[in-house]
User: Which sequence fits this backbone?
């Protein structure tokens, strides 16, 4: 006989897979049998179903009811997180930030790694919306140290998607594209694949790779939640309208759709307008939605139009060019990796730092050389693990590439970046790693 926990889990899975009516039916069936311990979670899931069905007012009521009756820190954290996301859709950004910040310490207390990372992603995404780009970068980076301990890859999808948008508005196109691809490869449920595909299409469109963007859009529109969901469906139409320069697809975006998509549609309607006064009116309407990252993305996609709208008096946010992407690894003290001097707040394991340092100074290098001279081991898995950690921290699976097989397999660094060592003469070299390479560096 199924328990209330089983029924709630089934309802969550049905919702995540886009079966909204079935999820609601499952919740209705178990409502009377739900003990007070599960009342908070029941209201949260029911609110999610209502939100997906476009019933914003009823969804907010469900979330607030859940917060009022939640009986554990985990339930309360999940409810504050979910309610914050709902407030985003309503354009109540400052309230959303408050609830995400309320959820943060509650998630840490419960040791729920997956939800902690998801909350960090959501908070970083809101910081993007209000134009706090450095804060968004710090929040995404701080979550990276947790993704390796998460039980599924869903949290990695979210963080890579957020970091992809951040790289795009900093005009780091290669890094943005690689992070978008990585987000999609890590997606495990349709709801996460939607976010990954939306990000990939945005980046590809910004880079002018319209054929690839159209292919990704086809995959997006084939997902059942996009076909059935009154919220997700219109976002696909906005992306299609941008790709096809179709004003009809960009008009009449439902109010239940996230303000970022409403802003994006308005900006591209301004781009396609032949009337300067109408273009200004549309851009002002987009600017009033307070989606600063969308204004910066528009700067990357359509810089000439962006400049013209600013010249006409619309104070749109600009993208922040960073120039060449410089990756710096510290090999002394607390091992860190930095992207354009912004330190990723996740410790680099000593083997990863050693491999990266060796490739910067001596690369390309073979598997045999890296195992024998750098890691001091015969375990190939140790090398694979060290390389994978660097790729995840950067957000680019092509950051370190290899060719060949066995011990002769040759490893090299991507030429898309400028690589450098930061070796201040303090602290323990390479975290105290006992290997021939560490000894050689110490002697030097």
Assistant:
């Amino acid at each position: 006989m199924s328990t209330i926990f089983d029924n709630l889990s089934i309802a969550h899975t049905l919702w995540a897979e886009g079966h909204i009516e079935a999820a609601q039916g499952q919740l209705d069936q178990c409502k009377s049998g739900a003990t007070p311990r599960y009342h908070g979670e029941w209201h949260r899931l029911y609110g999610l179903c209502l939100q997906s069905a476009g019933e914003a007012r009823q969804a907010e009521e469900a979330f607030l009811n859940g917060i009022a009756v939640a009986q554990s820190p985990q339930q309360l954290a999940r409810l504050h997180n979910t309610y914050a996301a709902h407030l985003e859709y309503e354009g109540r950004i400052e309230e959303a930030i408050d609830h995400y910040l309320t959820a943060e310490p509650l998630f840490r207390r419960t040791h729920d790694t997956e939800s902690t990372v998801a909350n960090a992603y959501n908070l970083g995404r809101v910081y993007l919306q209000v134009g706090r780009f450095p804060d968004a970068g710090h929040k995404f980076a701080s979550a990276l140290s947790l993704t390796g301990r998460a039980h599924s890859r869903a949290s990695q999808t979210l963080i890579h998607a957020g970091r992809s948008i951040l790289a795009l508005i900093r005009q780091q196109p290669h890094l943005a594209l690689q992070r978008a691809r990585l987000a999609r490869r890590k997606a495990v449920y349709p709801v996460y694949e939607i976010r990954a595909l939306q990000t990939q299409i945005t980046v590809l469109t910004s880079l002018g790779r319209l054929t690839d963007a159209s292919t990704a859009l086809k995959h997006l529109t084939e997902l059942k939640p996009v076909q059935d969901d009154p919220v997700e469906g219109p976002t696909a139409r906005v992306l299609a309208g941008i790709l096809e320069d179709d004003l009809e697809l960009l008009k009449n975006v439902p109010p239940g759709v996230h303000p970022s998509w409403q802003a994006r549609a308005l900006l591209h309607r301004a781009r396609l307008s032949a009337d300067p006064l109408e273009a200004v009116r549309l851009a002002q309407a987009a600017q009033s939605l307070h989606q600063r990252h969308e204004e910066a993305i528009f700067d990357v996609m359509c810089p000439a139009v962006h400049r013209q709208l600013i010249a006409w008096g619309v104070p749109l946010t600009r993208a922040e060019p960073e120039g060449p992407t410089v990756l710096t690894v510290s090999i002394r003290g607390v091992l860190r990796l930095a992207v354009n001097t912004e330190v990723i707040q996740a410790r680099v394991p000593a083997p990863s730092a050693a491999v990266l340092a060796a490739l910067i100074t001596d690369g390309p290098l073979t598997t045999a050389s890296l195992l024998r001279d750098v890691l001091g081991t015969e375990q190939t898995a140790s090398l694979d693990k060290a390389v994978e950690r660097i790729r995840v921290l950067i957000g680019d699976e092509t950051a370190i590439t290899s060719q060949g097989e066995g011990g002769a397999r040759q490893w090299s660094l991507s030429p898309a970046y400028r690589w450098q060592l930061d070796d201040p003469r303090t602290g323990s070299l390479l975290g105290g790693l006992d290997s021939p390479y560490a000894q050689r560096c110490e002697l030097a």
User: Anything to note?
Assistant: The mean pLDDT is 87. The two ends are 68 Å apart (CA to CA). The CA atoms of residues 206 and 301 lie 4 Å apart. Residues 93-110 form the longest helix (18 residues).
